[in-house]
Specification:
The chain is of the alpha+beta class and 480 residues long. Helix content is 38%, strand content 28%. The protein folds into four domains: 7-125, PAS domain (Beta-Lactamase), CATH 3.30.450; 143-246, Beta-Lactamase (2-Layer Sandwich), CATH 3.30.450.20; 262-322, no CATH class; 334-476, 2-Layer Sandwich (Heat Shock Protein 90). The structure holds adenosine-5'-diphosphate and magnesium ion.
Length: 480
């Protein structure tokens, strides 16, 4: 008999508590059995060392239901091999994941490492998932919430469509391929596991309504609300089921609410400040204009007075903008002809268009039914958007308005061929006071959004640098 493994190798095998290992020599004699093996199968070291492994009896059944023994009699075609074997012990069927590895030693010595891992619980969980009946399967699939079931090693066994929608994967891409912790940012999976065992979080084995983040396939983080439960079988932990809900829409609404509240507060302040500033401004502007008309003043002084007058006008305009956007007067809706209003506004700006070399086009596709809107407010929206378009085309270009009925809405697209907006600025456009223009107020789009949302409509901006910008407005066609 060859020398059994000793030293580091033996200690290594003994340290593997969840792996049962036998080392066989070329004659299939047992030269080593690790501690776990002896304990699990109830052997004493002296009983088995040196014996041919076939002598140990035939406790296993192969997949073809034939008895296998502690190692196959014919080793050669088997290794390296991996197979599932079953064994009856105390009226229960245990399932083992078995691997045979050929170990090449020095001077031509060769051993075989026969290692087994008990995978009964995982196997049962998997077969339970396979056996889940149609109704249950449909229920899980139909859930809008994400549902993921995984075993204790993190292998995903169930991944429903809800989870797919939130995380951006199909079940086929996930099951058996991606470990569950991949769906969370660093350390989050670890934290979740810790919380599941924390009695303060709904009890040991239960995690309820935990707000955290999941990682979408595209790498972005999705805020979620997670509940999870440990799954047991015969008091042993076999897996975890997680239910989670997408919080993105909710977050968006919360931010909007907060924004509206802030605007309301700001509105009160602005009303107060405007009131205090407007009267002295009118006096300053009025006197400056009056003095500017005097012919006995030197030219230099008159120029300065005219500057004062201009700047005062600018301030007045600013105050008017500020109060419009914060006042939020409810719209006075009357049935009207929107394309006619668009033409009217374009005519109003005609000289500015010509000055810049901007050509205006209006396409009203199909029949636009008369519908109710506040023409004063919509006129202001159009003026603001046309002005922005104009300012983006200092060298001229096209300003195109497209009006179209889509289902129950009127969709208005205002497109320019101007310098466009860099992607990183897109999400700031509707923030009050955001401007990239010298002398801009940064209130135009904020005002537009306020007015459009008072009409239960929506406004969005799409843009490409150097190509142009489109503002799309959707207004519900409330019957006139
Ligand atoms: P203001 O025009 O006073 O700057 P707005 O709220 O009307 O304020 O617009 C905010 C910003 O959005 C502008 O400063 C500009 O950077 C950008 N913007 C709006 N409309 C357009 C457009 N049609 N083309 C390019 N940039 C635009
Ligand atoms: Mg503007």
């Amino acid at each position: 008999m060859r020398k059994p493994p000793e030293g580091l190798f033996a200690r290594l095998l003994d340290s593997l508590t969840d792996m049962y290992a036998l080392v066989l020599d070329q004659d299939l004699r047992i030269t080593y059995a690790n501690v776990s093996f002896l304990e699990h199968f109830g052997f004493k070291w002296e009983e088995i060392i040196g014996r041919p492994c076939q002598d140990l009896g035939r406790p296993f059944l192969g997949t073809d239901n034939l008895p296998v023994g502690f190692c196959p009699e014919e080793l050669s075609p088997w290794y390296p091999a991996r197979t599932l074997l079953t064994r009856e012990a105390q009226d229960k069927v245990q399932v083992y994941d078995c691997t045979l590895n050929h170990l090449e030693g020095r001077r031509g010595a060769a051993w075989t490492l026969w290692s087994l891992r008990d995978v009964t619980h995982r196997f049962r969980l998997e077969s339970r998932v396979r056996q889940m009946d149609e109704l249950e399967r449909n229920l899980v699939q139909a859930s809008m919430d994400g549902i993921i079931v995984n075993d204790m090693l993190g292998n995903v066994l169930i991944f429903n469509n809800g989870a797919g929608k939130i995380l951006g994967y199909t079940p086929e891409e996930v099951i058996g391929k991606i470990k569950v912790y991949k769906f969370y940012p660093d350390k989050t999976a670890h934290e979740i596991k810790r919380l599941i065992y924390d009695p303060a979080r709904g009890g040991v084995g239960i995690l309820e309504n935990y707000e955290t983040q999941a990682r979408h396939q595209d790498g972005s983080l999705v805020p979620i609300w997670l509940s999870a439960r440990l799954l047991h079988e015969d008091a042993r932990e076999v897996g975890i089921v997680g239910y989670f809900r997408d919080l993105r829409e909710r977050r968006r609404l919360e931010t909007e609410l907060l924004r509206n509240e802030r605007l309301a507060t700001l509105g009160k302040m602005v009303a107060h400040i405007s009131h205090e500033i407007k009267n002295p401004l009118i006096t300053i502007g009025g006197f400056a204009a009056q003095l500017g008309r005097r012919t006995d003043l030197p030219e230099n002084a008159r120029r300065k007075l005219s500057l004062i007058h201009q700047e005062v006008q600018r301030l007045e305009k600013f105050l008017t903008d500020m109060s419009t956007f914060t006042r939020g007067a409810p719209p006075q809706k009357t049935p009207g002809d929107l394309p006619a209003l668009i033409r009217e506004v374009a005519e109003l700006m005609d000289s500015s268009f010509k000055e810049r070399g901007v050509v205006f086009h209006l396409y009203a596709q199909g029949l636009i039914p008369p519908f109710a809107f506040d023409s004063g407010q919509i006129r202001q929206v159009l003026l603001n958007l046309f002005k922005n378009a104009l300012e983006s085309m200092p060298q001229g270009g096209d300003l195109t308005v497209n009006a179209q009925v889509q289902y129950d809405d009127l969709v208005l697209k205002i497109t320019d061929t101007g310098h466009g907006i860099p992607p990183e600025q897109l999400h700031n456009l509707f923030t009050p006071f955001f401007t990239t223009k010298e002398g801009g107020t940064g209130l135009g789009l904020t005002i537009c959004r306020g007015l459009i949302s008072q009409h239960q409509g929506e406004i969005a901006v799409e843009s490409a640098v150097d190509c142009g910008t489109t503002c799309a407005i959707r207004l519900p066609l409330v019957s006139a």
